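Task: sequence design from structure.
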């Protein structure tokens, strides 16, 4: 078994355990979601606009709330995730809500082995690329799955945030901004439920903005824009303060918290 395979198997086991805990958490607010509340945030809604009648591929979908939110807006959605427990719950939700999304369990880097059609939109968001050792095959797969004229959109936590270790009381800058070496983390709890006794074992990688942008360009995509923002839609980092607009900021804001990139297949 290669190192990468071992890393992915460990991450898959952790994400399989996270599914049940996240599905019951306040953060994912399952009852409100089932009652019609969208799980999508203002950034992606503004960037992608009216998706009615468009085909959309959602990468690393967890248990499908965002996928199904796009589906409710009229998109024809297909989604992939590494976790079979996540995909199982996504399929149950799709059926329960009477939607027509399709869900595939696979490593995101293997998407083209499982899905052959091309899409108007490829979408991924919040905490996805850090699970990938190399962005080149990821970007290549995105280019393969986009129709000519199609759009890729990512909104993601800023790479500066991943330079810190958050397991102690005070975050400590510990990792390189764009680190080739794998980062192993073991801790109790999960971002959606800090009080959970679940043990997380995770392998991740840090990718700087240059890496993200350049791999997309090398794959043949045209970058429409790159934006950075001093706020997060999720309260998943220590000591954040909720703003009037519902976003979360740091008490001492010295760097951006999220970035977004929109790219096109010419």
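Answer:
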């Amino acid at each position: 078994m290669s190192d990468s395979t071992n890393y992915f198997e460990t991450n898959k086991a952790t994400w399989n355990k996270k599914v049940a805990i996240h599905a019951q958490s306040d953060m994912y607010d399952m009852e409100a979601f089932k009652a019609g509340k969208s799980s999508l945030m203002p950034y992606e809604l503004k960037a992608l606009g009216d998706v009615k009648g468009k085909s959309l591929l959602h990468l690393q979908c967890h248990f499908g709330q965002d996928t199904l939110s796009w589906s409710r807006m009229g998109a024809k959605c297909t989604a992939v995730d590494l976790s079979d427990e996540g995909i199982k719950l996504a399929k149950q939700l799709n059926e329960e809500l009477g939607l027509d999304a399709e869900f595939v369990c696979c490593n995101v880097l293997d998407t083209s082995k499982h899905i052959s059609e091309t899409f108007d939109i490829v979408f991924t968001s919040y905490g996805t690329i850090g699970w990938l050792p190399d962005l080149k095959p990821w970007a290549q797969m995105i280019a393969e799955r986009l129709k000519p004229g199609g759009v890729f959109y990512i909104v993601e936590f800023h790479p500066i945030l991943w330079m810190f270790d958050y397991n102690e009381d005070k975050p400590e800058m510990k990792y390189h901004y764009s680190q080739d070496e794998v980062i192993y983390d073991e801790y109790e709890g999960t971002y959606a439920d800090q009080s959970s006794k679940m043990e997380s074992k995770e392998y991740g990688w840090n990718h700087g903005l240059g890496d993200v942008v350049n791999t997309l360009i090398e794959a043949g995509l045209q970058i429409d824009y790159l934006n950075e923002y001093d706020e997060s839609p999720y309260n998943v980092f220590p000591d954040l303060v909720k703003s009037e607009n519902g976003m979360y900021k740091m008490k001492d804001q010295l760097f951006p918290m999220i970035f977004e990139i929109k790219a096109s297949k010419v």
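The longest helix spans residues 3-23.
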